[in-house]
Specification:
Elements: E1 7-17, E2 20-30, E3 37-47, E4 58-63, E5 73-80
Parallel strand pairs: 3-5
Antiparallel strand pairs: 1-2, 1-4, 2-3, 4-5
Length: 83
Amino acid sequence: MREQRKRLTGVVTSDKMQKTIVVEVTTTKRHPLYEKVVRLKKKYKVHDENDDARIGDRVEIIESKPLSRHKRWALVSVLDRAD
């Protein structure tokens, strides 16, 4: 049985490369001592085979095999288009 690969949702911040987009994923976490909710942002380089995504689009990405030095994620679908 194939294991589940991680799926994340984020916003495209750059689409200037060929077949690659940069997706910023925001997560929330509670600080262990101060109990304040902290927002964490992380950027992922994502493989976009057909150049579907544009800046500002909300997208779903999935873990994949290493495609280059920094690319370990692939585009699943575009959830919301930016206007």
